[in-house]
Amino acid sequence: MSCVFCDYIKRKDYIIQNELAVAIYDHYPVNKGHVLIMPKRHYDSYFQSTTDEILAFNDMIRKVKQLIDVDLKPDGYNIGVNIGKAAGQTIFHLHIHVIPRYTGDVDNPRGGIRKLKKPLVEYDG
């Protein structure tokens, strides 16, 4: 079975990369500038990551933030990972969400990722 994220990696259809990871814009963004960071190696869970992959993800998170800061100037960020079906994972290739946040994008952002917000594009995955 084909993996949509592996297909992006094979096509080199990503924003930036390092040795072990790539970043793409989310096709179902929660907010403008929502990016996904994923390993080049195919596996499901963050807990299967090597130490080198985790360092590569951190490098990518910082690089993605720099790009988003220049382009969109958000007021904050949420960074998160869904691990397993029960946690909402629908594509079983590890990916880390980097979600820019903007003052006023929700009425009360208190609690951050503990709250849900209506996405810009409804996710049907």
How would you portray this structure in words?
The chain has a single domain, classed as 2-Layer Sandwich (HIT family, subunit A), CATH 3.30.428. Helices cover 24% and strands 19% of the residues. The chain has helices at 4-11, 51-72; strands spanning 16-17, 21-25, 35-39, 76-81, 96-101. A five-stranded antiparallel sheet has the order 1-2-3-5-4, sandwiched between helices. A hairpin with a 3-residue loop joins β1 and β2. It is globular, with a radius of gyration of 14 Å. It starts with a helix and ends in a 24-residue tail after the last strand. The mean pLDDT is 91.
Fraction in beta strands: 15-25%
Trace the largest sheet across and list its strands.
1-2-3-5-4
Query: In the CATH hierarchy, what is the class?
Result: Alpha Beta
Mean pLDDT: 91
Number of strands: 5
- Estimate the global geometry from the Cα principal axes: globular
The radius of gyration computed from the alpha-carbon positions, rounded to a whole number of angstroms, is 14 Å
Proper CATH architecture: 2-Layer Sandwich
Low-pLDDT windows of residues? none
Helix % is 10-25%
Class of secondary structure makeup:
alpha+beta
Query: What is the fourth-level CATH superfamily?
Result: HIT-like
Q: How is the biggest beta sheet arranged? A: 5 strands, antiparallel
CATH topology: HIT family, subunit A
- Count of DSSP-assigned helices: 2
Output the helix-strand order: HEEEHEE
Total domain count: 1
Distance between the termini: 16 Å
